[in-house]
Amino acid sequence: MNLLIFGMGYTSSALVEAMQPMPPGAITATTRSADKAERLRDAGIVARLFPGSDLSDAIAAASHVLISAGPDEGRDPVLAHLRDTFAEADHLEWVGYLSTTGVYGDHGGGWVTEDTPLTPSTDRGRARVAAEGEWMDLHGKNGLPIHIFRLAGIYGPGRGPFAKVRNGTARRIIKQGQVFSRTHVDDIAQVLIASMQRPNPGAAYNVCDDDPAPPQDVIAHAADLLGLPIPPAIPFDEADMSPMGRSFYAESKRVSNARIKKELRVQLLHPDYRSGLAQLLSAEQGG
Prior knowledge:
Structural class: alpha/beta
Distance between the termini: 33 Å
Largest sheet: 7 strands, parallel
Shape: globular
């Protein structure tokens, strides 16, 4: 395997860690930062700046490609620069695109599957639907072996509620009927690896745990684990929130993960937020 990653961020880093050991030079990753490129090289990853350099040689050398870079001003940056190159890349064995469950829009707390119509209610969701459509168009017209992964809210090491609970900034914002699906970053990594091992070009997969839950329940459980007071409840209508933060509460849905279990034979490492938070706290404490 020779893996090319567009966008070396939080999820991509978890995937690289889960794939180790890999031979030197087997992973190439892009970044916008020259400083980050140096850090990646120090970690044994072939680093390339993007945008700003011609990556046709890296695509030609790759067997697998992961698109982790999100839309930029409403457009997929990889397609904006390299669509024709990917249209001709008939040697690739697997291409993965990291999308979001935001493509489904609001379902009033109801369940969605990969076959649910895409009806996003935010600009971010609409940009993701457009990008998914462009990648799927390359699959239909050029045979590109694309796989779409719709990620729920991501948490994991360094990205969870504990810091805010500890410093007193965590808030339990209550909106009647509001539920979110979420996923531990290590489960995303194992889903991607499972898909590489069982390619199904053109498929879309929801990546989430088994337990969609109200966000205030997660904060309360984190406080309980830490032995700290549960933050007070704040009605959604009274909460002081940024437009970005408020937009997350515009959608409520429960996301089904049945397909990753059936088709990819994935057994979740963290099937709910309780097991995921317990593992994070144990790791923090050196357990």
